[in-house]
């Protein structure tokens, strides 16, 4: 049984064999550069003082700033944050986002705290980061992760800005902010949409699909999603909207199953109203949530926490494709089972990179102090209008209103963000596939993704001239 960080190291070592880098350089790439473990007191609503355990790990500064989310969970520990920070480095490298990897964690169950307590904890954590120079638009830029969202990011940017008066780029100290606080349109759904684009690209590959005995395309595929948080919800939404049948959605209190398909939005509303996914109309309730992972389906999307599929349950998983929307949902033992079974595992560290990719767009927006599309939208629309009108005059034919609206439309921020995300996920999928197919000894897509990441970080170090 390996710790999460050891599992990441194992996958790294497995891939390092396929690279040409010096052993010492590989050690440097693998190591976590800076680890900040902190304890601070917070007075709770009932007057009690609680000592909060929290972390920020900067895995690599081969590119700065460092980047990665902050999670709120009772399971947070240093090993977990180190593993997640490492994955961020590799993730950013693969999708060509020019950041080093980092991650933060606060060991609390957010459900056990009032909003006011959560705000105090988040603001105090931010102040601790400021004191040690562990946050800033050019240093380290946090984002949402498990148990956090826009609200927490708003508290972080506000605390940071108040401690750094006059810092013109303060908004770029954190991403995943609400739009009104410097956020970017499209960040919320980015991870789920990125997962969808990545899996769709794999499913469009005829050779890969033929090997798995599946037809190409997303339409009609049976999908199981684990997790109805931000990532799971949006994965389910995009798969359903594109013709897949989401036959089950699992949460920690149980799972719901229906061969006809589950509507994630209805389920989300039901869960908000009743506190559970149980008794959802038209579905069967599965009390043991983990059993939903073993349902007969084409695509399984674990979108919750790490280590949910290990050597024990992996042999019972029937999905042909596993898309890792969560970070580290499979253990190295599970990987071995799937290699032997011929199950295709699309690895976390690029498949869920949509979040950080759009975070990058948000950070760029913050540094440029202007919304995407602000300058060119009207210009493009008027140019398109003139071109279309000219074509109509020359041909003597008229475009339909639908076609006219489509052609004349100038890009809004959301159009540009989605376009950038789609391009990123398609190129990354192809790059990893190319590495995998160029070397038949590489056993799986995860190893190919690591090779891709190690090479990119390696080049970056080599270019710095530290390791001639
Ligand atoms: N927490 C997300 C991840 O694991 C997003 C990180 C970011 O946007 O910086 O990739």
Largest sheet, in brief, is: 7 strands, mixed
Q: Please tell me the CATH architecture of the largest domain by its name.
A: 3-Layer(aba) Sandwich
**What ligands are attached or bound here?**
glutamic acid
| Low-pLDDT residue spans | none
Number of helices: 16
The average pLDDT score comes to 96
By CATH, the superfamily of the largest domain comes out as NAD(P)-binding Rossmann-like Domain
**Strand residues, percent:** 5-15%
Mind telling me the C-alpha Rg? 23 Å
Say what the CATH topology of the largest domain is. Rossmann fold
Element order: H for helix, E for strand: HHEEEHEHEHHHEHEEHEEEHEHHHHHH
Helix content: 40-55%
Report the top-level CATH class of the largest domain. Alpha Beta
What separation lies between the terminal Cα atoms? 37 Å
Number of strands: 12
Count of domains: 3
Can you list the strand order of the major beta sheet? 9-8-7-6-10-11-12
Summing up helix and strand content along with how strands pair, one would put the structural category as: alpha/beta
How does the overall form come out from the CA principal axes?
Answer: globular
